[in-house]
Design a protein that fits this description.
Chain lengths: ~240, ~350
């Protein structure tokens, strides 16, 4: 199985400060991969660098293409999509226009199908389609951000903390939708502080600490790892000892 | 005060105000999309007006050559940028846009220019020339600086203004020019006489505002431009190129500038440096609109035009002083009403 996204030996720096050090990761077709880690571990930085928002030292290949020479817009056209932490919606435009612009790089005919697909995933957006994006609730804005990214029919969707600041019931809703994306043929790279929820839907996981991956493996292995359980899942296994 | 005089002044003010409205709208558009405060807007006015006036005498204006020269510079920049990954398709596209297009415009100008060329053709040629200049100006001066602060962009903008004004002096000389009127028809309503020219000013202004409204409200490209203005990163993340948005904004601004110039040049004699002052009045309207609001800018432009008309009647020596002083209370009010503005970072 060849990897859809393959990052090797990636370094990302802010000036002299290296926020991500020698990170390598793969995402295969139809796979949900999560990166968990504490605040400030460098997860968002890594995702932004993969998207081309920040400069990345190392190699990134996506769908068999070297992405070094591609800028953000080219990566979008290649099928890579990022739902950023701050969502970056077009606040003074309505929901429908936000979605329409999500399909900016794909043919008009395909855009109509994308609308159907997104409205099926998020019926709430259809109800609110004439409302300005800036007036939506936090959960609806997150749905819109995901919907907008999905409008471009990406091969890989990268989600940066989709549960941030949302009510638990909405979080559950959003995670269920992420699970459904696999059926639609979209791979997912998910960054989460809510490790428990993320590990439940993911196939594989990486654990990030201070800019480096300290652990990787199948999501169930990671979930049962004692150190992960202690630091990220908020409970200790029976008789667990600090590693 | 005599009502007839007042009506005359008001009519005069609204005619000028309509022009300022067009220019103000272009400034708001360019600022929203690219964060550039477009000082050289006035040069687009002058270039459009004087190219039209020169074409009307049957000669080819130097601006047609300038467009080709700027296109060559833009092509060189494209090549330099693409040096690491030379893709044939990209180079051919750049060649077509930056060299073939202005060369075709130049050839067309030489082919069509003559003492008997119809006015409509001359207008079209002037618009093409200035639009090309606007497009290349963005590529040469602003696209390489797109990531810098508003202040850096403003300094570049002042530089462009000075350079283009100097070139204006080279192309058109120090003497002013006047162009032929678009129409010699006239219409009398009561004491007021509307010339065909002033009707054209109203008509074109309204048509342009409606066209802009349709463009931004109903086309994908117009929405993409708005999206870039609202959230630059968000726009990039859906694949809208900031450079494409910038090009379109500059293209529209230069077209609007050139149209304004062509509308004014039959009414008043324009000199190579007149555009700056006209552009500044559009700028005042744009500032009153907070550089964000299109309707407020349009209304402010009509007020600026009217104040100008009245002050030139009552205190003509202080005409400009009064008009530009308008900006002070607005700035004070705005600074009181708005919280400290943060420099946008991206």
């Amino acid at each position: 199985m060849s990897a859809l996204l393959s990052v090797s030996d990636a370094h990302v720096s802010y000036g002299k400060v290296e926020a991500v050090r020698s990170v390598s990761l793969d995402v295969a077709d139809n796979e949900i991969v999560t990166i968990i880690g504490a605040n400030g571990a460098g997860k968002t930085t890594l995702l932004n660098a993969i998207m081309g928002v920040l400069p990345l030292k190392g190699t990134t290949a996506f769908a068999g293409m070297d992405m070094a020479a591609l800028d953000i817009e080219d990566r979008v056209a290649a099928g890579l999509s990022l739902v950023p932490e701050h969502r970056e919606l077009f606040g003074t435009m309505n929901v429908e226009d936000n979605l329409l612009l999500g399909a900016f790089r794909i043919p008009k005919a395909t855009a109509a199908q994308s609308f159907e697909r997104v409205y099926a995933l998020f019926p709430r957006l259809k109800e609110r389609r004439k409302q300005l994006a800036g007036t939506l609730s936090g959960g609806e804005q997150q749905m819109l951000a995901m919907g907008r990214a999905l409008m471009g029919a990406p091969k890989l969707l990268m989600l940066d903390e989709p549960s941030l600041g949302l009510a638990p019931i909405i979080v559950a809703d959003i995670f269920r939708t992420i699970g459904e994306l696999r059926a639609a043929g979209v791979s997912v790279l998910l960054i989460e502080q809510n490790a428990q929820a993320a590990l439940k839907i993911a196939d594989r996981a990486y654990v990030m600490e201070l800019g480096e991956f300290i652990l990787s493996g199948s999501a169930s292995d990671i979930a049962s790892n004692q150190r992960v359980a202690a630091s990220y899942l908020g409970f200790q296994h029976e008789g667990a000892s600090e590693i | 005060m005599n009502t007839t005089i007042m009506l005359f002044l008001l009519q005069d003010g609204i005619t000028n105000g309509a022009i300022y409205a067009l220019l103000g709208l272009a400034l708001v558009l360019v600022f929203a999309v690219t964060r550039v405060i477009l000082i050289p807007q006035g040069e687009f006015v002058t270039f459009g007006a004087l190219s039209y006036a020169v074409l009307a005498t049957g000669k080819v204006p130097g601006t047609a050559w300038l467009a080709l020269a700027m296109g060559a510079a833009a092509f060189a920049l494209d090549l330099f940028d693409a040096r690491r990954s030379l893709r044939l398709k990209r180079i051919l596209r750049s060649l077509a846009l930056n060299i073939a297009l202005p060369a075709a415009i130049l050839a067309l100008t030489y082919g069509l220019a003559g003492p008997r060329t119809p006015i409509a053709v001359n207008i079209a040629l002037s618009l093409l020339i200035v639009a090309a200049i606007g497009l290349f100006l963005y590529r040469i001066a602003f696209q390489p600086l797109a990531h810098t602060s508003v202040l850096v962009l403003l300094i570049a903008s002042v530089g462009c203004h000075l350079a283009l004004q100097g070139l204006g002096l080279v192309f058109f000389g120090a003497e002013g020019l006047r162009g032929p009127a678009l129409s010699s028809a006239a219409l009398t309503i009561g004491p007021l006489r509307f010339t065909g020219q002033s009707l054209a000013v109203y008509g074109l202004t309204i048509a342009f505002i409606v066209a802009l409204w349709l463009f931004f409200g109903f086309t994908l490209m117009g929405k993409a431009l708005r999206a870039t203005a609202v959230n630059r990163l968000g726009a990039r993340l859906v694949g809208i190129r900031t450079t494409l948005s910038g090009q379109i904004a500059f293209l529209l601004a230069s077209l609007i500038g050139a149209i304004s110039g062509i509308l004014i040049v039959p009414i008043t004699t324009l000199y190579y440096d007149t555009g700056f002052l006209i552009g500044l009045k559009g700028f005042i309207a744009a500032i009153i609109g907070g550089l964000v609001s299109y309707p407020l800018t349009a209304v402010a432009a009509l007020i600026v035009g009217s104040v100008e008309a009245f002050s030139s009647f009552y205190a003509s020596n202080f005409k400009e002083v009064i008009v530009f002083t308008l900006i002070l209370p607005v700035l004070v009010l705005r600074s009181l009403a708005a919280p400290a503005v943060e420099e946008e970072k991206d």
